[in-house]
Design a protein that fits this description.
Layout (H helix, E strand, L loop, with lengths): L20 H11 L4 E4 L14 E3 H17 L7 E4 L5 H12 L3 E4 L6 H11 L3 E5 L7 H11 L5 E5 L8 E2 L25 E9 L2 E8 H15 L7 E3 L6 H14 L3 E3 L5 H10 L3 E6 L3 H10 L4 E7 L16 E8 L3 E6 L9 E2 L14 E4 L4 E5 L28 E10 L4 E6 L5 E3 L2 E3 L1 H11 L4 E6 L5 E6 L3 H10 L4 H4 L12
Parallel strand pairs: 1-11, 3-4, 3-5, 5-6, 6-7, 10-11, 10-12, 12-13, 13-14
Antiparallel strand pairs: 1-2, 8-9, 14-15, 16-20, 17-18, 18-19, 19-20, 21-22, 23-24
């Protein structure tokens, strides 16, 4: 499924015919088949089944082929949409690449999404399969996927890693036991493979949920922007605490790893003790983590050595200019993320202060085709265009219907909704606020009207307010006669745990 017209749009891909993500992986595997490719969080058994996995490129390649072949044997065809909801583990990366190797479209979904959000999102893209895991912590994700599938007619298969799977789920753990490469049918498509839709991610806009479709080439443009700004050496190690469930997560971790050809080590959630230990074991390369975590990781970052680059992802980029000066031994690159529209990667200045966003072409290493350009729109909001920016939503042509979509002007710029002020003489922009009508909680974007509707279904008398939340942008606080009952009803109705967490018993910290 080609994103028709992208390369003809201003800011679209400058040329066709680049490599696909699978081709990048295969190249790295040919060069370093015995080298370590992927490493699980060392505390994997604390939150999901099985001991931590460590796969060489050859082992990862066999697992990818085995899963791709299994998906094809289920009868899933080229361009079938396969949803993925997994923790930040080896399984998630293998699944992503397997879906692409099978010629299908991967739809990674945030781990905290529950039935309400899953049903809304998957109904938009017509997913026919969900790949998940038996459990993450106390949540039975395979059971959750089965419940969602029962209400969505197009979903035909639930595939899952882990133990004690529900009846009807397709087990996947056997793919790691494959000793010989499996053969997945080659998909025959017109045009260049890199111009086909590879991944669909979901953005929350003031108008509703948008399914952002990206080709391999667009993903490559985003990953290259981070990779080049970080100045990572070939075959270097990458440690990532950002899950590959969004464009930023893919561009900041999986794509640099594929371009780099080294080892991708993963960290799930944010466990400072575990992450400190992983930093101690990490030599050179890059450490990718949430920007608000810089304060907590500062001491550990020095343990990684001066040859390490810290890549800090800011999902609330308006916070960036007020971030404290960086005094760590490592080089720091800030990644300002504007929902699913695009991102800007920038080195910290000589005083350790965040850099301002360039007005116009972005990046010290700006390849042909301009991965990104910025402008301040007529409403005072930041607009982006370039090779990484999605011009179309999924399915192609949906822009012309009644579903929420991105605002694309006649020059190909997409409005992010983030307010900004400009300095034309210095050719710089400063982001000053998030999009109107959006609340950002723990890195997740919500529409207040949607939250209020879910709350009203649980308790019409309950109230909710978004409060300043320090490093995590905002936090939710709820008020009700019976907090526990409201929380339980929200969870039963499939609400996000961050919403339910607003009604924790008084006196308890919000674990979400």
């Amino acid at each position: 499924m080609i994103l028709q017209g992208d390369k003809d749009q201003p800011g679209g891909p400058a040329s066709a015919g680049g490599a696909t993500l699978d081709e990048l992986f295969r190249r790295a595997g040919v060069q370093s088949s015995g080298a370590l490719a992927l490493a699980d969080p060392p505390n994997r058994q604390d939150f999901t089944d099985h001991a931590p996995r460590r796969l060489t490129y050859a082992q990862a390649d066999r697992a990818i082929s085995a899963l791709a072949a299994k998906l094809c044997r289920l009868g899933l065809q080229t361009d079938t949409v396969v949803a993925i909801q997994l923790p930040n583990t080896v399984d998630a990366v293998i699944t992503l690449l397997a879906v692409l190797r099978a010629g299908m479209i991967a739809v990674p979904m945030p781990l905290l999404w529950r039935s309400h959000e899953l049903k809304t999102a998957l109904s938009k893209v017509g997913a026919k399969a969900i790949v998940t895991t038996a459990r993450v912590g106390a949540i039975a994700h395979a059971e959750l996927a089965m419940q969602v599938a029962a209400e969505l007619f197009p979903v035909r298969f639930i595939c899952a890693f882990g133990e004690d799977l529900p009846d009807g789920a397709v087990p996947l753990d056997d793919i790691f036991a494959a000793e010989q490469p499996s053969i997945a049918p080659r998909s025959l498509r017109a045009g260049h493979a890199a111009d086909h839709v590879a991944v669909v991610t979901f953005d929350v806009t003031p108008d509703g949920l948008v399914a952002a479709a990206r080709s391999h080439a667009q993903l490559m443009a985003g990953g290259s922007a981070v990779f080049l700004e970080a100045g990572a050496a070939r075959n270097a190690n990458i440690l990532s605490a950002i899950p590959p469930s969004s464009f930023a997560g893919l561009a900041a971790s999986v794509l640099p790893w594929l371009l780099d050809g080294g080892t991708l080590s993963l960290h799930h959630g944010f466990d400072p003790v575990t992450l400190f230990g992983q930093c101690q074991d990490h030599i050179g390369g890059m450490i990718v983590l949430p920007g608000p975590a810089l304060a907590a990781i500062g001491s550990a970052a020095s343990l990684a050595g001066a040859n390490t680059t810290i890549a800090a992802l800011w999902r609330s980029p308006e916070q960036l200019m007020s971030a404290p000066s960086w005094r760590g031994e490592c080089v720091l690159v800030d990644i300002a993320c504007f929902g699913e529209v695009g991102l800007v990667a920038m080195h910290r200045g000589p005083e350790g202060l965040p850099a301002e966003i360039p007005l116009g072409p972005v990046g010290r290493h700006n390849p042909a085709g301009a991965a990104l350009e910025t402008q301040r729109g007529k409403h005072g909001t930041l607009a982006l265009r370039g090779a990484m920016v999605p011009v179309h939503v999924f399915l192609p042509g949906a822009n012309h219907g009644f579903e929420p979509t991105y605002a694309v002007d006649e020059s190909g710029f997409v409005d992010t909704g983030f307010t900004c002020r400009g300095d034309p003489s210095a050719q710089r922009l400063i982001v000053t606020g998030p999009p109107g009508g959006i609340t950002i909680i723990g890195g997740y974007r919500f529409r207040p009207a949607e939250l209020e509707a879910q709350l009203a279904a649980a308790d019409p008398a309950a109230t909710l307010v978004a409060l300043p939340g320090g490093v995590m942008a905002q936090r939710l606080a709820g008020s009700a006669l019976d907090h526990i009952t409201v929380r339980d009803r929200l969870l039963e109705n499939g609400a996000n745990p961050l919403l339910a967490g607003a009604f924790r018993p008084r006196g308890q910290a919000n674990a979400a």
